[in-house]
Structure formats: C-alpha cells, structure tokens
Write a structure and sequence with these properties.
2 domains; disordered C terminus; 6 helices; globular; 271 residues; six-stranded mixed beta sheet; Nucleotidyltransferase, domain 5; alpha/beta; 22% strand
Length: 271
C-alpha cells in the first residue's frame, strides 16, 4: 500500500492506494487533519498509524509514502515520523524529480508542489486535452496545462476562507460566517450578504479567468476545466467545471512515485 500525504496551509489531506493501479486509482480511504507546522514527529506518527488502524489497515502494509507539501516547516517532523513509525524514507515531490511535465514558469522552482501534482494527474487522466485546474483550498489556484504536457502557469487568489477571515479581522462589525452556497445573490441580512459576496465573487473570478485563458493561452479553444480542493463542491451545478475530482493532488502524487521507477501507468481512463 502507498500512503499519500498532501500538506496544505490549513489541512493535511491523505489517502491510501494499493500499488500498481491504472488511472484513476481507487483510494481505500481518505482522511484530513489540521496542519500544525509545530507538530512533533511523534504526534504525526501516532496520528497516521492510528488513522490506519481505525480503518482496519495495518501500518506494516504500507510499503511507500509520498509527500506533497506547501508548508516547509512541517517537513522535518513529517519525514522523521515516516522513518520512525513506518521505517520508510518518504518520496517528496520537489524540484529535480521526474514529473513528465515541461514547466514554462520563468522560475520553475516557484511552482507549488500541489500545483505540480495536479498537473501530473491531468496529463494522465486527460492526455489529449488542454486543461485548466481550479484548486479551491486556502488559496484558490488556477493552472493551465496543454495537451503537450506544458505547464504554462496560472493565477493565485485568496481562497474563500481567507477572504471571509479578512472581512472579519479588518472590519468592526462583520462576523465570521458559514461558507455555503447562498439561496440568492441579494442577501437580506449581514450574514447572507457576506455569504453571497464570498460565493459570487469567487464564481465570477473563475469565469473570468477561464475565459481569459481560453483567449490568451488556447487560441479560443475551450479548455477542459477541472475543479478540486475542499470548496469545489460548493460550485456543483454552476457549470463552471467540466468535472470535479477531489483527489486530484493525491492521484498526481501517486503517479510521481511511479515515474521515479518508470513502471507502466495506463492513461486516459477517465471519462
């Protein structure tokens, strides 16, 4: 079994995949916990082994561990936890590893590991498509990937939660609200107004950015748009995404592990 860990600014998202599966692989289960850069290796190791046992899986069956992280301060403890509790030196998705991508960023080292993982995944799931990935986590990121496996770049905007917290912290009377899809664009209370503003400003930003990429990057050809990340489900039914893949970053991390040893991975199995 392969343990996959995506360390984000707010949450650690993980999953277990059996080895040598075609794309898209089936996750045996998923889990989340709050990201704590100060957590010790023992805290992390105990959490990971416990979550496996609670799902009737033996930690001893884990043969590989992959990590994709945008939180450098968390890496030392996490790598030590993998070595101490699993006896495994984890694979870390970082500069210098094989990805199969041609990164066209001016400085490729600046591209976040989560964005690279998403790009790796889409080139295997949709090998003949131009793709825009919208990853809705702490930040909302846009990534443009061509059918030729060129990672062109993208955009980064504050995510829904950051936007809400900024309103609360920088104003005298605006409260923290639940982030939900509002019943109407015109809110009739302060809470409804904030919820509407958060939701529809994000929806508008996504539509604008995707439209600009279609013109600037893909010569007027509509790209295939994939939504992922914790908040992407809020936008189901808006037709902004062609598909939603919550586990996209874990798929990409899984493929990256396989690419280091050059096994065969079947492509294009997604509908």
């Amino acid at each position: 079994m392969i343990l996959l860990l995506d360390v984000g600014n707010s949450q650690l998202f993980g999953g277990i995949i059996n080895s040598n599966q075609a794309m898209p692989p089936e996750l045996l289960f998923r889990f989340r916990k709050s990201t704590q850069s100060s957590a010790s290796s023992d805290e992390l190791g105990l959490f990971l082994t416990s979550v496996l046992k609670e799902n009737d899986l033996s930690p001893k069956k884990v043969t590989q561990i992959g990590i994709c992280s945008v939180v450098p301060d968390a890496m030392h403890s996490l790598k030590n936890a993998c070595q101490k509790y699993f006896g495994i030196t984890p694979f870390v998705l970082q500069a210098g590893v094989k990805t199969g991508l041609k990164v066209r960023y001016r400085n490729p080292l600046e591209v976040g590991a989560d964005r690279i993982a998403n790009a790796i995944a889409v080139t295997h799931l949709y090998p003949n498509k131009n793709v825009v990935v919208v990853d809705m986590g702490t930040a909302t990121t846009f990534c443009a990937i061509t059918k030729d496996k060129d990672y062109l770049g993208g955009a980064i905007i504050p995510g829904l939660r950051i936007s809400m917290e900024a309103l609360e912290s920088r104003t005298a009377k605006l409260p923290i609200v639940e982030i939900v899809k509002p019943e109407a664009a015109c809110g009739r209370s302060t809470i409804e107004s904030i919820q509407s503003g958060l939701y529809y400003s994000h929806l508008g930003a996504m539509r604008e950015m995707i439209g600009l990429y279609q013109k600037e990057v893909y010569n007027g050809e509509k790209p295939f748009v994939i939504g992922t990340g914790g908040f992407s489900r809020l936008f189901q039914g808006t037709e902004i995404f062609d598909t939603e893949i919550p586990d996209l970053v874990l798929y990409g991390l899984y493929i990256a592990i396989q690419l280091q040893g050059n096994p065969t991975i079947s492509q294009g199995n997604a509908s």
